[in-house]
Amino acid sequence: MSLVINHNLSSATASRNLTQSYGALNKSVGRLSSGLRVNSAADDAAGLAVREMMRADVAALNQGVRNANDAISAIQTADGALGVIDEKLVRMKELAEQASTGTYTNEQRVIINSEYQAMASEITRIANATDFNGIHMLNGNLSKAYDGTKDEGAMRVHFGTKDDAAEDYYDMKVNGATAKALGVDSPDLSTQKGAASALDTIDTAIASKDNIRANLGALQNRLSATISNVQIQSENLSAAESRISDVDVATEMTEFVRQQIKTNAAVSMLSQANSLPQMAQKLLG
């Protein structure tokens, strides 16, 4: 190479290498300081796209767990109210049994019947008053088919990342538990015959109530299993997202040291290259 003073090609080469090494060093510092291998689309365009989709799915699954837990809370609210209704039905059965014997007069049965009707009214009140977050659980609104446009119909519990009925949600129907729905609003215990016929009616009501509670219990167990499954999905997706996104600190630290050495070397060589034209000046005297 000729000794010239107008152009310093060695300096340009050293400067270019310094720029590259310093850029790589900055990238390594960014990865180590953030803990992420992919900080921008330029780092890994395909990896960034996959990572962001995984992050969205993880967030959706975590919300799905909360949704399922809220549904369990709603079920427990309804089951607690049905437990109180059960007590009322037991008392109504006791009153019907009392009024069905011949040792009471019809006047006395009228008194017994007044308590029976009060119990029936209380069952209806409990059923209409039981709600979770403003959604009535036992008044019959949830016994209809799912609508999705109004606050009536089966409760759809959504826990998946899409909208597939086979994977992402299921509908929760709850039959009404008012006195009318259970069939205990019509019996009249003011006569011995009416009281005796009420016994079978109350048995049917108790069976209907138990059926509601059994369905709620089965749904709660199903939701618990669903929560476990969704949590496992979330954990596995988080692990996959970590493998794409997170930096391997040991590997990156090795790269950092390598680029640091190259940068220091490039700085030294640039300093030496910048002094080369001075050699030509010495020849000029």
From TrEMBL:
PANTHER family: FLAGELLIN. It is found in: Secreted; Bacterial flagellum. Flagellin is the subunit protein which polymerizes to form the filaments of bacterial flagella. Coiled coil: none annotated. Residues 199-283 form the Flagellin C-terminal domain. GO terms for molecular function: structural molecule activity. GO terms for cellular component: bacterial-type flagellum; extracellular region. Belongs to the bacterial flagellin family. It comes from Desulfobaculum bizertense DSM 18034. Residues 5-141 form the Flagellin N-terminal domain. Keywords: Bacterial flagellum, Cell projection, Cilium, Flagellum, Secreted. This is Flagellin. InterPro entries: Flagellin (IPR001492), Flagellin_C (IPR046358), Flagellin_C_sub2 (IPR042187), Flagellin_N (IPR001029).
